[in-house]
Amino acid sequence: MASTEANVEVQQPVKKSFKKSMYRGVELHDLLEMKLHNVVKLLRSRQRRRFSRGMQKKYDTLLKKLKKAKADAQQGERPKGVKTHLRNAIVLPEMVGSIVEVYRGNEFVPVEVKTEMIGHYLGEFSITYKPVTHGKLGVGATRSSKFTSTT
């Protein structure tokens, strides 16, 4: 009996590796170390054109506020949300992990920026309309419901 127990291998539990955050084949930590003009080369043409025409001060201000909110957050906690009306701001690698509250016309919608969002506009994650939810039909809405009793 001891010989059969010796043949059984003790298997170590398999460690699950975290999914690597990548954008266009480049890992997130490499993107964070890259200079902005190298990151821009990875973006799609519309976003590259936007950066080639120059960035306005309000976008730099948004980035500074996001960095400050990240720095002020405790280790392991989510950073405080930064409110903005800049729906046309392009998500950059520095924004990943931040919470941006994007204005949608009547309220601010909190958006937690993830790696998959790099290169998209902030407005894409905060829809400006309320999606239609179709409910049940009312009495008299169809021909057959005219003849049913309402009592």
TrEMBL record:
NADP as a keyword of this entry, yes or no, is no
Q: Name one GO cellular component term.
A: cytosolic small ribosomal subunit
State the UniProt keywords alphabetically. Ribonucleoprotein, Ribosomal protein
This chain's protein is named: 40S ribosomal protein S15
- Alphabetized GO MF terms: structural constituent of ribosome
Q: What PANTHER family does the record point to? A: RIBOSOMAL PROTEIN S19P FAMILY MEMBER, SMALL RIBOSOMAL SUBUNIT PROTEIN US19
Q: Which organism is it from?
A: Euplotes harpa
| Entries under Gene3D superfamilies matching the protein | 30s Ribosomal Protein S19, Chain A
Q: Which residues form a coiled coil?
A: none
> Which Gene Ontology terms describe the biological processes this protein takes part in?
ribosomal small subunit assembly; translation
Please report which protein family the annotation says this sequence is part of: Belongs to the universal ribosomal protein uS19 family.
